[in-house]
């Protein structure tokens, strides 16, 4: 999206509606009681069982719910079509509340129950906390919802498979756009942990290529929306743009308080903020807020994977409304299933055959989406800009 398109984006297309998180969490709990998520026993015969630890509640709960729903949408359709050589693919999901200690406990439980792979972990601090177990058990972690460099180290190349672009990719696009428009006073509001630090480093590195540095930075604690001090600090520097590397609750609170304090500049967010969650949290105050995207728009049918997503959603009869987080979950499941299909084509499906198949996918396309698991493939990664409007829409 160029600047003129951003400027006119309040006339945009395509809506994103909020998902009922409490209803979803209740349904997960009911399903577990009914025996469909039997975490205390081994995998059902023939099933390919994945473990997903993510936030279903708390400040990132809406993001986790939507991501899981998108993945489940694809796997339900895949299973209805015969699964992988007649084997169903199932996700066991546990809520970690976006807290590292709970994520570690969930991962230990998945390993004890011998899940085939880990899938769709949400967030940097949680995913990083699980890494020692991933390395110790040599269990693949596929499509963690994070852009942190810590999950992209060379020594993890056969353990962690990143479908999304990195925060460095996202912030580089932001800085190119902004400096190209002559906007050089850029501040950073970031979460005080590995996630926020990764975003801050991305902005700093991108600015350094233009001989610039952030004019100021301020933090918010994880799972907090206490932004008053950060607002006072950053607004005083009168930046042209404030880049936000936080969750949707903190970002929404910051936007409102900064505007109330008289700030008239722009707000840019990395994708982890959760586009529809941020839009819902801001309401009419979302107008003009920019979010980078790492998957194609779930509203525009010009992309092959979007057409697949919308077709499967329509066929399912589910009430899920299209949104970027569900789209990312669907895409992750779509790419993973391609790896499963290739890994099982020559005989018995194993973790080793899956890793080999995924390695072969690197640099290729799945449903028109460029697969770039490794850091050196950044030029093929998908990143674009979008802008929110005051009526719940997204312009790309």
Describe it.
The strands form 3 sheets. Strands 7-6-8-9-10-13-14 form a 7-stranded mixed β-sheet, with helices on both faces. Strand 9, helix 10 (275-282) and strand 10 form a beta-alpha-beta unit. It has helices spanning 3-7, 21-34, 61-80, 100-112, 124-137, 167-180, 194-208, 228-235, 248-260, 275-282, 304-316, 324-344, 351-361; strands at 48-54, 89-95, 117-119, 141-142, 160-161, 186-191, 216-220, 241-245, 266-269, 290-293, 365-366, 369-370, 384-388, 394-395. With 396 residues, the chain is of the alpha/beta class. Residues 2-20 and 29-43 have low confidence and may be disordered. Helix content is 43%, strand content 14%. The chain is built from 13 helices and 14 strands. The chain folds into 2 domains: 3-15 and 167-297 and 384-395, Rossmann fold, CATH 3.40.50; 21-164 and 300-378, Rossmann fold (3-Layer(aba) Sandwich). The chain is globular. The longest helix is centred in the last third of the chain and has 21 residues, at 324-344.
How are the SSEs placed, and which strands pair?
Blueprint: H1 3-7, H2 21-34, E1 48-54, H3 61-80, E2 89-95, H4 100-112, E3 117-119, H5 124-137, E4 141-142, E5 160-161, H6 167-180, E6 186-191, H7 194-208, E7 216-220, H8 228-235, E8 241-245, H9 248-260, E9 266-269, H10 275-282, E10 290-293, H11 304-316, H12 324-344, H13 351-361, E11 365-366, E12 369-370, E13 384-388, E14 394-395
Parallel strand pairs: 1-2, 1-3, 3-4, 4-5, 6-7, 6-8, 8-9, 9-10
Antiparallel strand pairs: 10-13, 11-12, 13-14
Helix pairs in contact: 3-12, 4-5, 6-7, 9-10, 12-13
């Amino acid at each position: 999206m160029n600047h003129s398109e951003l400027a006119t984006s309040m006339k945009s297309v395509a809506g994103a509606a909020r998902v009922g998180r409490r209803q979803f969490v209740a349904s997960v709990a009911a399903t577990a009681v009914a025996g469909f998520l039997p975490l205390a026993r081994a995998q059902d015969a023939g099933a390919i069982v994945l473990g997903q630890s993510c936030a279903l509640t708390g400040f990132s709960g809406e993001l986790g719910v939507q991501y899981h729903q998108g993945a489940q949408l694809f796997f339900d359709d895949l299973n209805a079509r015969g699964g992988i050589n007649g084997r169903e693919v199932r996700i066991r999901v546990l809520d970690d509340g976006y807290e590292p200690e709970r994520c570690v406990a969930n991962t230990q439980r998945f390993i004890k129950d011998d899940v085939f792979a880990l899938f769709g972990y949400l967030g940097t601090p949680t995913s990083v906390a699980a890494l020692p177990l991933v390395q110790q058990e040599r269990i693949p972690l596929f499509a963690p919802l994070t852009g942190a460099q810590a999950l992209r180290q060379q020594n993890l190349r056969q353990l962690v498979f990143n479908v999304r672009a990195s925060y460095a990719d996202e912030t580089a696009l932001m800085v190119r756009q902004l400096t190209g428009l002559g906007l050089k006073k850029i501040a950073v509001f970031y979460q005080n942990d590995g996630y926020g630090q990764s975003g801050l480093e991305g902005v700093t590195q991108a600015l350094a290529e233009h001989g610039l540095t952030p004019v100021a930075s301020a933090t918010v604690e994880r799972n907090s929306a206490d932004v008053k001090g950060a607002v006072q600090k950053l607004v005083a520097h009168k930046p042209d743009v404030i880049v936000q590397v936080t969750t949707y609750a903190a970002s929404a609170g910051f936007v409102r308080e900064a505007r109330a304090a008289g700030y008239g500049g722009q707000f840019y967010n990395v994708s982890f903020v959760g586009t529809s969650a941020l839009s819902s949290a801001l309401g009419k105050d979302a107008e003009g807020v920019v979010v980078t995207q790492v998957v194609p728009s779930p509203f525009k049918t010009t992309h092959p994977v979007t057409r697949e997503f919308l077709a499967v959603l329509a066929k399912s009869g589910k009430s899920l409304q299209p949104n970027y987080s569900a789209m990312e979950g669907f895409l992750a499941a779509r790419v993973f299933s391609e790896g499963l299909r290739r890994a099982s084509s020559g005989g018995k499906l194993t973790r080793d055959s899956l890793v080999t198949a995924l390695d072969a996918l690197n640099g290729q396309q799945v449903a028109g989406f460029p697969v770039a698991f490794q850091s050196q493939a950044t030029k093929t990664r998908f990143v674009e800009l979008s802008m929110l409007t005051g009526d719940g829409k997204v312009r790309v």
